[in-house]
From TrEMBL:
Keyword hit for Mitochondrion: no
Residues of the Peptidase M20 dimerisation domain: 231-323
Organism: Steroidobacter flavus
Signal peptide: 1-27
Keyword Hydrolase appears in the UniProt entry: yes
InterPro entries: Amidohydrolase, Bact_exopeptidase_dim_dom, Peptidase_M20, Peptidase_M20_dimer
Keyword list, A-Z: Hydrolase, Signal
Name the UniProt record assigns to this protein: Amidohydrolase
SUPFAM superfamilies: Bacterial exopeptidase dimerisation domain, Zn-dependent exopeptidases
Length: 441
């Protein structure tokens, strides 16, 4: 998850886990069902994998150790494994004993250039190089939890392979946070390399992201769940002159200020924001070398967030027109460049409806909630452009810490409450089983 913006766990945590989620199992999944029993059994392993991965985080496109851990585990379960997909990605195919459809489950594996500031005993001390800079490396977005939960779900599902109707494709993806400069990677490259194609082609995909919500809750939104993100660059060109006599030149600094202000008028006065939110932010502006020189050029960089393709197109046109015309009114020019970053993460409404009961079985009826759209983006969106998908959030706050007070994803204090991990394993497992068991028309 990209927003472009403590736990002293011991073995005791594992003991408390079964109490936590057997009580939250829901009426359809009484404690003692085969899935329950299997998740109870695998949970200590999930916690151990998560801590191991947390202590050995790897940056985007460098997930060598993590992907080996995943591949070895999948092979040990008798799952067909392909490695080296989109650099370090791992794809597993579990063929059930009964005929049926194909469902994909996805986890991301990469860590962030963040120096960890938690006091968990397995805190990362790892340092690495990111775009040439020496950085601390931390699983500050919870992808360690995603990977461990999917490894757990793979073990549970492999244990019931004989009765499985259809096939489960496990996608362990590198570089969700974006590859280093000059490299390609992430979901877009996995799709390009055919992860959603032969030999088995999924007709639906499911994924989970952890976030600082009430522990063990699952939050979802039909249709647009997370925003489309586009990177914006505007280069304003004027004519350099002395700062004391600006009329002898064309001042790109003042024109940039006018453009910045004018851009904010678009969402507030020109877009119908009752249908979907839209945001444009200029986060960087550079121009000039000293106070008494009007420079010849200013460069602004920003981000554009939208939820609907038509509104996005309209917004981009208006941004371009506004920047160009405002510049023209002063005799300057503005070059606008937009680079698509991620499409909208779209939850297929029918699939969402169909799988809600599975989520309720996983978390408990009162722990599955709808949510507001999230303006952050997620490269899971590249899969949902190809097949219908469902992407949900799993709350992992410390017990009793209100959502607004917990460290956000990407914070050096980001914290995962491991009591919520079995809920994620259950959600992945139930969604796969229920989707495959759904009568096909
Ligand atoms: Zn993230
Ligand atoms: Zn993330």
């Amino acid at each position: 998850m990209k927003l472009h913006k403590k736990f002293t766990a011991g073995l005791l945590a594992c003991v408390s886990l079964s109490q936590f989620w057997s009580g939250a199992a829901g009426a359809d999944a009484p404690a003692g069902s085969p899935v329950d029993a299997a998740v109870v059994k695998v949970t200590p392993k999930v916690v151990a994998w998560r801590r191991d991965i947390h202590q050995h985080p790897e940056l985007s496109n460098r997930e060598v150790r993590t992907s080996k851990l995943v591949a070895d585990h999948l092979r040990s379960l008798g799952i067909e494994v392909t490695t080296g997909v989109a650099h370090t990605g791992v794809v597993g195919i579990l063929r059930g004993g009964q005929p049926g459809r194909v469902v994909a489950l996805r986890a991301d594996m990469d860590a962030l250039p963040v120096t960890e500031q938690t006091d968990v005993p397995f805190a990362s001390k790892v340092r690495g190089k990111f775009n040439g800079q020496d950085v601390g490396v931390m699983h500050a977005c919870g992808h360690d939890a995603h990977t461990a939960m999917l490894m757990g779900a793979a073990e549970v599902l492999a244990g019931m392979r004989k009765d499985l109707h259809g096939t489960v494709k496990f996608i362990f993806q590198p570089a969700e946070e974006g590859p280093p400069t000059g490299e390609r990677g992430g979901a877009a490259l996995m799709v390009e390399e055919g992860v959603l194609g032969a030999p088995v082609q999924p007709s639906a995909i499911f994924g989970i992201h952890v976030w600082p919500g009430e522990p063990g809750t699952i939050s979802y939104r039909p249709r647009g769940q997370m925003a489309a993100a586009d990177s914006l660059t505007i280069v304003v060109k004027g004519v350099q002159t002395h700062g004391a006599q600006p009329w002898h030149g064309v001042d790109p600094v003042i024109v940039s200020a006018q453009i910045m202000t004018a851009l904010q008028v678009i969402p507030s006065r020109q877009l119908n924001i009752t249908s979907a939110p839209a945001v444009v932010t200029i986060g960087s502006i550079h121009g000039g070398v000293r106070g008494n020189i009007v420079p010849d050029q200013v460069e602004m960089k920003g981000t554009i967030r939208t939820f609907e393709p038509e509104m996005r197109e309209d917004f981009l046109k208006r941004i371009r027109r506004t920047a160009e015309m405002v510049a023209q009114s002063s005799g300057a020019t503005a070059e606008v460049t937009v680079e698509p970053y991620a499409p909208v993460t779209y939850n297929d409404p029918q699939l969402t409806n169909q799988l809600l009961p599975s989520l309720r079985r996983a978390a408990g009826d009162d722990k599955v909630r709808d949510m507001l759209p999230v303006m952050g983006s997620e490269d899971f969106s590249h899969y949902t452009r190809v097949v219908p998908g469902l992407y949900v959030f799993l709350g992992i706050n410390k017990e009793g810490v209100p959502t607004g007070q917990a460290a956000e994803n990407h914070s050096p204090q980001f914290y995962v409450n491991e009591d919520a991990l079995p809920v994620g394993v259950r959600a992945l497992t139930f969604v796969a089983l229920d989707y495959l068991n759904e009568p096909r028309s």
